[in-house]
Write a structure and sequence with these properties.
The protein is mostly helical. It is 73% helix and 0% strand. Helix 8 runs antiparallel to helix 9 and helix 9 packs antiparallel against helix 10.
Length: 271
């Protein structure tokens, strides 16, 4: 009677070895016949907050990694990236200071293998607005919002009035982005042109006066000066040029080792 269990134990390794090829073949067959599905497995953001047990930022990081994998799978299989906003909702509900997530959804919400709709664009703008409100001194987020409103949304609608409304909304954010040093130097000229086209000539001139001092590119500064001569008249434009020239000369003499923008806070306030 005692020999039977021992015999069974001796047979176990043999049986395990014999089934290994069968298991490998079955797994290979299973993987070959798997199809990709765009499925969102996470509970609502409110439930995620409770399930985090107080470690909300850590859970947001884990969902962020999952979201990156999801985007990669969607592009690989040419999906519509339909759950991108749900992932962003979950991440930012858990960690509203996750700055990179705002910029990420600002890109992924629009640039998809299957293209984006106006609804997608408006949803993207909601996230970018939230990011700009959360980080008011972030020029890159301001530029992302401005560019989305000015260039991306108008391309998603056939209504001319709606296009102009989006461009008008983007103009103010373009000015903010320029003040914060985001975007190219010629952005100030583009902003002025857009404001003038919208009938906001005084605002265009004021923006150019502000940016004339901050722009480093001499060629762009000369173009700004030329535009100011047209908008403000020669006397006022020349007075601005003299004031800015004097500010730069004082900067070179007194504090050349600090950024010029910082010098404006240290030195005499220019007229």
């Amino acid at each position: 009677m005692s020999r039977v269990p021992w015999a069974g134990l001796l047979l176990l390794p043999l049986l395990a070895g014999a089934t290994l090829p069968l298991r490998a073949e079955s797994m290979h067959h299973y993987l070959e016949h798997q199809t990709y599905e765009d499925v969102y497995y996470l509970p609502s953001p409110v439930w995620l907050e409770h399930l985090s047990l107080g470690h909300q930022e850590a859970l947001a990081d884990l969902i962020w990694l999952k979201a990156l994998v999801y985007i990669g799978d969607e592009f690989l299989h040419e999906g519509d990236v339909g759950n991108v906003f749900r992932y962003a909702d979950a991440i930012l509900h858990l960690d509203p200071d996750f700055r990179r997530a705002y910029a990420w959804v600002g890109t992924m919400g629009l640039y998809r293998p299957t293209g984006a709709s106006l609804e997608d664009g408006l949803r993207t703008v909601e996230f970018l607005r939230a990011g700009v409100e959360r980080f008011p001194d972030d020029g890159e987020l301001a530029w992302d919002l401005a560019a989305t409103l000015s260039y991306e949304l108008p391309a998603l609608t056939e209504d001319p009035a709606e296009r102009e409304r989006f461009r008008a909304l983007g103009a103010d954010h373009m000015q903010t982005a320029a003040r914060l040093g985001a975007g190219p130097d010629w952005l100030a000229l583009t902003n002025a042109t857009q404001l003038s086209e919208l009938g906001r000539t005084e605002q265009a001139a004021a923006h150019l006066e502000e940016m004339y001092m901050l722009v480093d590119d001499e060629e762009v500064r000369a173009q700004i000066s030329e535009r100011l001569h047209q908008l403000r008249g020669h006397v006022r434009a020349q007075a601005l040029e003299r004031a800015v020239r004097g500010a730069h000369e004082s900067y070179e003499a007194d504090y050349p080792w600090v950024p010029f923008e910082f010098y404006l806070l240290l030195g005499d306030r220019p007229v």
